[in-house]
Structures are given as structure tokens and as C-alpha cells.
């Protein structure tokens, strides 16, 4: 009966909790990416919190004892518990996060494994034990359960040593697990893709290193003061001196005042020399002795952080350690860490700062190359001026970015949508108002960006018409054979006669394939020049031929041809000239007929 009740209770509990348990999630999902960013910030906060445990202890120089700052202890325990809870949630999330099978990475990005049992086995056999050890609340247990029982007793020193050992023992695995995340990488890709975010992460990592070095320096300095006091205790023959060294929270000395040896300990000459220059060989911890006696935790932390910055930046070049072996090893570790940080983090930050001026540097180099080329080719000053102006305007329009190279590896549908967005202006060109989406897409695929400076000649009389030009920004003017001037601005096009010429000078063979009738290319009978700097897209003759081959039937329709000729300044001018010629010819014939009539 009991087994049946327990089984039924378990089923009801599982059925109640099942709707609240998330299903298997894709590591590339947006919510997972947001959680990864939040988790990285939490990890950065966690690795900043742990070294603060070292500042819980300080020295009361007048009483020659080490004190525990209990209000600060409570605050740090709460903060550490919050970061542990966040990490525990992250551990639970790993049981619901799909992963890429390593054997499937031979080709492509690999296959996602989304079976819950396989996900659990993969995580349990991977980092689960490591993560579980990291999330254990060892410092909280020692502070809340072990330290209160040993405060103001001979066992306090061992309890404090146990606390320091637990923090250091957990801190190294934490860094091993957190540093790849702080570098901005996760199994699903980059966490922070922005260059500024990576710059801030590198800067915070340098601050973290200084924070750790300064905190360890304070801790080891406190340990040396503790060692000096214990050496004085052993040579003083005071019975309860080991209890006097650990004076609890530093607020209650009633149990010590009843002992006559308490005053003897406070005035002990060996204990006093622990806080005087030359009384004990502290080595690199000489400045930390008086710092440990400072009551303000802010002062102790800020100066320790400054010391960490100074030693990492100078590679501990101004420090002379004593003959204490662990002190020498600590100094060597600072030198090695400084070299590593300068090789990695400072190098990354330098690359980022250089990348901010990369385009400017490229522009300067290109200008220098252009100047050398013009000097080598002995170009006249007028041509040099126009080349400099064209280079300057082209750089301002494109910022030195090769758009074709950026877009060439994107999927076709995404590339088509991007081109529709970039070339949205083409619908403003009145020639293409009647064209369907497939034709516009085909034209957008072949458009190329072009810039012209004021005074440039796009077409000239007697020259080949080898492109159509669509104006995005700026003004042009078209001057016909008879001197008529037509202004062109945003939304207009020139060279549109090339489209009709491509349709008229083609035929279809028996196989149904398009063939080109041999003959001369189209020559321009007008001059088109820029009145201002012009940004435009061009469609070359070869690309236009491909479009006409694909959509010849649609482009040959009377409606499209009529729309093209009605909206085109070239065709409207040509029609006006032919009407004028016909009208003048008619008037001339009429005058001849009137002059040869019988009345005259």
C-alpha cells in the first residue's frame, strides 16, 4: 500500500511539473543566445566576487590580533549564493540543450542531437562533475557553520586556512570553465559579435587579472603578518596567545580582559616589531603590513587593486622578494601572467584600436599609391585634380567596402532580399514601373555601383552606348544633336536606347535560341554629363543582353515598349525631332503646291 501511494504521488508530481519543464532547445535559438550573454556577465561577476573573501580578514594593530569583518561577510556570502544559483540554472539548462555530434562535423556544421537521453549522457560524461564541484557552496558552509564555532579559539586559524583553501580550490576550476566564455566563445559560436563588446571583455579581463593579483597579494601579506605574530607567540611563553591572535569579530574582548596576559601580549616587544620596518623580512609584502591594519575595506581593496595593476604592467620589475620560497614563486607567477596578458589581451585591444582606423589607413595608402602613379605617368595637373576628386568622392560613397565580396557567400534568397532592399530605388525609375518582379530581380543581380564627379561625361556624341545608367543621387543633363537640353535627376536613366537596340538586333534560329545579328554597335547621338557629383548604378551592355534574352517576349510587348518610349527623354526627344521634320516637310510641300497653282 505504501509503495502504491508513493508511486501514485510521484506520478502526480511529475504530471504537475511536466508543463513547466522546457523541451529540448536549439543552441542557436535567440533565447539561448540571450541567456549565454547573461551567463557570461554572471560568470564575470562571480570571478570578481571570490577574491573579495580575502578582504574579510584584517589586523587590529593595537590588540595584535586578526579580525573577521562580519557585515561584509554576510554581503559577500549573499552575492556568492546568487551567482551559484545562476550557475545551477545553467547546469540544469545543459540537460535540455541540443548539441552537435562530433562525428557529424566532418562535413558542414554537423547534426544536432535533440534526444533528451543522449543529451543527458553527453553532459554527464563531459563537464557535469566539473560544474557540480564549481557550484558547491563550500565558502558559505565554512563561513556559516565552521567559523562561528572556532572564532576566538585556537582552532580559528585552521578554520580560516580552510576557507582560503576552499576558495582557491574552487577558483582555479572556475577560471578554467569561465575564461573561454569570457573570451566570447561557446560551443554554438561567438557570444559577443560586436567589436566593442569584445574590447570591453578584454579590458575587464585585464582588470580581473589585476584584481586577482592584488587580492592574493593582500592575502599572502596577511598570512606573513599572521606568521610573524605566531612566531612572537611561541617566543613569548604566554599561554593563551594563540587565542589572542584570533579575536573574533573584534567587538567583544570581555573574555580576554579578565586574563592578565592579555595586556602582556598587546605590549609584547616581538609582536610590536611585526608592525615596524625591519622587524620581519616581509619582502614584497612590506606595504601590505600597514594595509592589513587599515579598518576601511574600500581602502584595502583599492590599494590592492592598484598594486595588482602596477605589478602586471611593470612585470613586477620593481619588486625584490625575500628568501621565502612561496613569495618567490608568487613573484614569478606575476611576471608570467603579465607577459601572457601583454601577448594576448593587450595585443587584442591594440588590434581593435587599429581596426577603428583601418579604413582611414587604407584610404591614406591608396591616396599615396595614386599620387605615385600619377607622378610616374606624368599626368597634367588638371587630370590629377580630377583623379583626386573622383577618389575622394568614391571613398565617401562606399567607405572602402567591397559590397560584392561581402554578398557573394550569402544564400540566394537572402541575397535577393538584400538586393531588393538596396535597389529599392529602381522602382522609382519610371522606365521600370511596368516591369514584373522577376525582371527587376534579374536586373538587380547585374547592377554595379558607380560614382561620377561633377563635369564627368557619361555618354558623348559618336561614342559607344555600352551601359544604362540609373541615377540615385545627383543631377545630369542630356544635350541632343539639335542642342535641346533635358535635365536628369534622381529616378531618371540614360542609355535606355540600348534596351531597344538589343531587342531589335536579335533574332531566333530554328532551335529557338537567341542569336545576335552581326553589325555595328549602337553609337550615341547625344552628350550626357554630370552637373553635380552623382551616385548611380549601371547595367552594362552584356548584362542587358542576358536580360533581353531571358525576357524578350515580355520586353517586346507593345505596352512595355510604349511605356519605355514615353518615359525616356531620349525617345521623347527623338519623337519631337521627327515630328518637327515631318511638319517642316509638310509645310514646304504646301508652299510649293501653293506657288505652282493657276492663280499665280
Model description:
- The protein has 600 residues and is of the alpha+beta class.
- It contains 26 helices and 16 strands.
- A 4-stranded antiparallel β-sheet has the order 7-16-9-12. A 4-stranded antiparallel β-sheet has the order 8-15-10-11, with no helix packed on it.
- It is elongated.
- The N and C termini lie far apart (137 Å).
- Mean pLDDT is 78; it is low at 508-512.
Features of this protein?
single chain, 600 residues, alpha+beta, Cyclic nucleotide-gated ion channel 20, chloroplastic isoform X3
Determine the mean pLDDT.
78
Task: Please tally the β strands and state the result.
Answer: 16
Radius of gyration: 41 Å
Based on secondary structure, the structural category is alpha+beta
Distance between the termini: 137 Å
Output the number of helix runs.
26
User: Helix content range of the residues, please?
Assistant: 55-70%
Strand order in the largest sheet: 7-16-9-12
Biggest sheet overview = 4 strands, antiparallel
Q: Spans of 5+ residues with little confidence (pLDDT < 50)?
A: 508-512
Roughly what fraction of the amino acids lie in strands? 5-15%
Overall shape = elongated
